[in-house]
Amino acid sequence: MTASPVPGVVAIVLVTAATLAIGTWGLRLSRTTSDFFVASRTVDPRLNASAIGGEYLSAASFLGVAGLLLVSGADMLWYPVGWTAGFLVVLALVAAPLRRSGAYTLPDFAEARLGSRSVRTACSLLVVVIGWLYLLPQFQGAGLTLGAAVGAPYWVGPLVVGGVVLANVTSGGMRSVTFVQAFQYWLKLTALLLPAVVLALVWLGDGRPGAQETSGPFPDLVSWSRPVAEGGGQGLYVTYSVIVATFLGTMGLPHVVVRFYTNPDGRAARRTTLAVLGLLSAFYLVPPVYGALGRIYAPDLAAGGSDGLVLQLPHLMLDGLGADLLTGLVVAGAFAAFLSTSSGLSVAVAGVLSQDLVGRDRERGRLDGVLAFRLSAIVAVGVPCLTALAGADVGVARTVGLAFAVAASTFCPLLLLGIWWPRLTDVGALAGLVVGGLGSAGAAGLTLATDLGDRLDDAWGGWARLLLEQPAAWSVPLAMATMVGISRATPRRVPRHTTRFLVRLHAPEAVELDRG
Amino acid sequence: MSGAGTPPQRVRVTGPPRRRPPLARAREVDQETPLGELYLGSLLRDQLAIAVRTLAWIVGGLGLLPLVFFAWPALADHVVLGVPVAWWLLGVLAYPYLLLVGWRHLRRAERTEDAFTELMDEVGR
C-alpha cells in the first residue's frame, strides 16, 4: 500500500485505548464469580444483543465477505445470509430453552440433560477445539491486517490482539467484556457503513461507472450473478454444504451460546436473539457495496488476494485527507473485529477450561474461582496466539468455515435432540458427537493439514476431495441419525429426570413448577 | 369406655376420600401424573409446531433458492435497476424476510407460553 501508516496506527491506538478503558470501567462493576462467567445474568436484551453482534462479527464478516463477493460473486452471499439465518434457527429452536436450562456452558447443559460425565468431557473438548479453530484465524488475520494497514511485521498483530484480549478477559470477565462487545458492534457498523456511503457518493459523482456495463466488459458477469457455486452438481453441493454449516453451526459456537446465559430469563433470551437478527441484518447489507465497488475500482484485487479490499478501497477511490480518514475508520473497525471476536471466544474457552481442567484443583480448595478463570484465560489465548506466531498457515476463511462445520455436526444435533426429544440417551449423544466430530473435523482437518486433498483430486471425478473439504452436508445428517439410532437402541438409558428437565426447559418462568 | 354420666365425646366418622382433592394443574405437572404429562406434551408439541413452521419458511424462502437457480440458470441474467436479481434476493431482501419470520415466531411462541401460564394458574376441575 502506498498510503501513509499514520491513520491506521492512530485508529488502532484509539480502539485499543477505548477497549481497555471500557474493560476497566466494567471491572469496577465486577465483584463475584458469577459476574465473571455470566455477568450475574442481569444483562438487558438490547445491551446483550449489541454484545452478541459485536462478538459475532469477526474479521471474516468485516473484511472477508466483501473480498469473497468481489472474487466469486453472488454464491458468496450465502455466508452473510447463513450467519444471520443461523440466529433465526437459534431463535426458533434453542434460545429460550437453553437459557431456561440454567447451565453455564454447553458442557453444563449436556451434563444436566443427560447426567453423564463422559458426554460432558466430550463437549468440553469440542468447545476447546471449535474455540481454537476460530481463534487461530483471528490472530492470523490481525497479523496480516496490521501488515497491510500500517506495515507492521506479522508478529505484531497476534501479540497486540492477544495482549489486549488477555488484559480485558482476565481483569473483568464476562461483565466487562459485555460492555466492550456492545461498544464494538456499533464501532464496526459505523466503520463499515460510513465509508461505504461516502464511497457510493463518490461513485455517483464519477458518473456511475460500470452501471451500464452489466452485459459488456466483464466476461464472468453471469457467474458473478449466480447464487450457486461453479461446477454443476458439485457447485450445488458446495453451496448447500455452506448453507447447512452456517444455518446450523451458529447455535454450536461456544462464544455465542455462552451469551444466552447472561439473559435474565427465557423470554429475554428470545427477544435478544430477534434483536441480534436485526443488528446483523443491518451490518450485512453493507459488504456487498464494497464488493460491487471493488469490481469497478479494484479489478486487480479480484484476481489476487481479496481480504485487503475493504482496507484499500478508500485510497483507490479518493485522495488526500478524505482517504486517510476513511482508511483510519476501516482499520479501526477491522481491529475491533479481531478484538471482540477473540475476547468472546477466549471467555468461552476459558470458562470451560476453568471448570473442567483447572476447576478440579478448585474443588480441592486450592484455587478460588476467579483465579482459576484467569489462569484458564491465559491458556485459552496463549495456545492459538502462539500457533499463529509459529506461522501455521491454514487459510483464514477456511478455518472459520471448518469451525462452523464442526459446530453444526456436533452441538447442533445435541442441542436440538436434547431440547426437543425426550428419548435421547447418553450413549446416543456420545456416539453422535464422536461421529459428527470425527466426520467433520477429521475430514476437513486431513485436507487442511496434509496433501490428501491434492492426491484425491481426480478420485470419483473430484467428488472425494469435495466431500472431505466441505463435510457439513453429510456429517450433520449423519451425526443426527447416529444420535437418534443409538438412543433408540438403548431405551433403558433414558435419564430418569428427563421429564422434569424438559419442564424446566420449556415452561415459562412465570409458572411455579418444580424444575428439579 | 368412659365412666358413667359423662356422655361420650362426639366423633365425626368419615371414610377415606373417594376422590383425591383437586390439584393445581402445576402440581399435576410436578408429580408427573398422566394429566401433567399431557399438559407438558401439549406445550412441547405446540412450541415445536411453531418452530417447524418457522423452519419451513426459512427453507421455502431461502433454502430452495440454489436449487431454483440451478434448475433455471437463465434467472441469474435478470437485472433489476442495474443489479442482478440474485444480489437483490440474497444481498438485500433476505434480511427483512428473516426478520419478519423471526418476529412472527417470537409473537407466536410468547402467545403459546402465555396460554400455558394461564392454564397452570387455574386450579384443576
From TrEMBL, chain A:
What Gene3D superfamilies does this protein map onto?
Answer: Sodium/glucose cotransporter (1.20.1730.10)
Record flagged with keyword Nucleus: no
Q: Which UniProt keywords apply?
A: Cell membrane, Ion transport, Membrane, Sodium, Symport, Transmembrane, Transmembrane helix, Transport
Q: Does the keyword Transport apply?
A: yes
Q: Topology relative to the membrane, per the entry?
A: Multi-pass membrane protein
Q: Where in the cell is it found?
A: Cell membrane
CDD domains linked: SLC5sbd_u4
Fetch the InterPro entries from UniProt: Na/Glc_symporter_sf, Na/solute_symporter, Na/solute_symporter_CS, Sodium:Solute_Symporter
- Record-linked Pfam families: SSF (PF00474)
Q: Where are the membrane-spanning stretches?
A: 6-27, 47-71, 77-98, 119-135, 155-173, 185-205, 237-261, 273-293, 325-350, 371-390, 402-421, 428-452, 472-490
| Main location class | membrane
Instruction: Please report which protein family the annotation says this sequence is part of.
Output: Belongs to the sodium:solute symporter (SSF) (TC 2.A.21) family.
Name of the molecule in the record = Cation acetate symporter
Instruction: Give the species this sequence originates from.
Output: Nocardioides fonticola
From TrEMBL, chain B:
User: Where is the stretch described as Disordered?
Assistant: 1-27
**Keywords for this entry?**
Membrane, Transmembrane, Transmembrane helix
Domain of life (superkingdom): Bacteria
Q: Transmembrane residues, as ranges?
A: 54-73, 85-103
* Residue ranges, compositional bias (Low complexity): 1-16
Q: What is this protein called?
A: DUF485 domain-containing protein
The species is: Nocardioides fonticola
